[in-house]
From TrEMBL:
It is found in: Cell membrane. This is Metal ABC transporter permease. Signal peptide: none annotated. Pfam families: ABC-3. It is a multi-pass membrane protein. Belongs to the ABC-3 integral membrane protein family. Gene3D superfamilies: ABC transporter involved in vitamin B12 uptake, BtuC. The chain crosses the membrane at residues 6-27, 32-51, 57-75, 87-105, 141-161, 173-197, 203-222, 229-248, 254-273.
């Protein structure tokens, strides 16, 4: 029972953290930048390990955050040179991810990192890697790391909610009223980088993308208010984590994969049943003029 609790709690923390940040990525039409960051932070993790010789969580976070910001800077530099947005994202994240793979493969005997773990996660084993403090078992390290990351994200969003909101909806107006748009852009990207690396050992780099995009996209269909969108995104992510775990037990399948699959199902429900933007609502609006004419 405790193993079930820790796994669901880990998935819930990942979903909540990614759900909050995903709303701003979706609103800014930058969802695929989250995908780019989740792949390109790999060389930062590898370099941090080579420099320190340990898997210290703080050093991993710093290395990942640095590479995340470099990724965003390179993407913007390529866009400003005239390259299309999707091409810029594809070039940067594949190149940096390849560098990370080379660093790990060339130094396999020195780097205690598993590429499968980085990509797909090991959420089923989070309860075994615990934090021992003064002889007391404080629980899984992943839970503490993700809790700290979620707290940091919530504090940043609450402190600068108006700035993030205005930058998401109208960057030109934000710049006109004196808000440093570039600063908040890189702050958001830094938070995405931290959240991505904090989730590596639980859901993996690839599946973090699902939690960043799917719950936020579903919430976008359900409401036109940012505060409600944030709440819906977190709720959908939490339901995906819990539902995905029990689905994985029932199907004897990947836990992280099942969580994202459940998120996809919830998105489809939102797409069909959304009161304003759903397929049923759109079909009803199209038929009303015909009914009135008759």
């Amino acid at each position: 029972m405790m193993a079930d609790f820790w796994i669901i709690l880990t998935g819930t923390l990942v979903a909540a953290t990614c759900g909050v940040l995903g709303c701003f990525l979706v609103l800014r039409k930058m969802a695929m930048v989250g995908d780019a960051i989740s792949h390109s932070v790999l060389p930062g993790i590898a370099i941090a390990f080579l420099v320190s010789g340990s898997r210290d969580s703080m050093l991993m976070l710093i290395g990942a955050a640095a590479l995340g910001l470099i990724t965003v800077f390179l993407i913007q530099a390529l866009q400003q040179s005239g390259l299309q947005s999707d091409a810029s994202i594809g070039i940067v994240f594949t190149a940096l991810f390849a560098v990370g793979v080379i660093l790990i493969s060339r130094n396999a005997s020195h780097i205690d990192l598993d590429l499968d773990c980085v990509l797909f996660g090991e959420i089923a084993y989070v309860q075994w890697d615990t934090w021992i403090w003064n002889g007391y078992d404080m629980g899984p390290v992943a839970v503490w790391m993700l809790s700290g990351t979620l707290l940091l994200v919530l504090v940043a969003i609450l402190l600068f909610y108006k700035q993030f909101k205005l930058c998401a909806f109208d960057p030109a107006l934000a710049a006109a009223v004196g808000i440093p748009v570039a600063l908040f852009h890189y702050l958001l990207m830094g938070l995405v980088s931290l959240s991505t690396v904090a989730s590596f050992e639980s859901v993996g780099a690839i599946l973090v993308v699902g939690m960043l995009i799917i719950p936020a996209s579903a919430a976008y269909l359900l409401t036109d208010r940012l505060s409600a969108m944030l709440g819906y995104s977190v709720l959908i992510g939490v339901l995906s984590a819990a539902g995905g775990y029990y689905a994985a037990k029932w199907l004897d399948a990947s836990i992280a994969g099942s969580m994202v699959t459940v998120a996809g199902i919830l998105f489809l429900l939102a797409l069909v049943c959304s009161p304003k933007h759903g397929l049923i609502a759109r079909f009803g609006k199209r038929n009303r003029p015909n009914a009135a004419a008759v």
